[in-house]
Amino acid sequence: MQTIKIIVWSLISLLMFLVLNYIMHLPAIGMQSSDLMRTNLMAIGLFGIPLLLTVFRLRVGFYFLALIQLIYTVGYFSAAYQVTMLSHAHVLSKIAVMVVVIIALLINVYWFMLAWKFRKATTKARTERYMKYRK
């Protein structure tokens, strides 16, 4: 059950990244770049591989997913900096992007809380199983 929650919130986090990436490339924001599609495909691949590992019950998928979540969390801070300091967009556009960034950061924090609870539960279950055979 916790695995499904983590997968669902990972997909929500990916969706938030794709939305923010699209918003950042709008002409109203002023961040010009031609690699929107390439960045989106890369993000889908980076999230997809660990999610597949997780679906196949390989725990290493959770660790890769946590690393990718951490990298994208840093990316959200970078997006906030770019919009506030480097963009010449209208103030309302900047506020809208900042709201999306804050929502995405809250989703990632919630994801890390779920992952931490899952890690604690699996470690406890493994320890109890080991102690049962040790006696």
UniProtKB/TrEMBL annotation:
The chain crosses the membrane at residues 7-24, 36-55, 62-83, 95-116. Keywords: Membrane, Transmembrane, Transmembrane helix. It comes from the Bacteria. This is Integral membrane protein. The lineage of its organism: Bacteria, Bacillati, Bacillota, Bacilli, Lactobacillales.
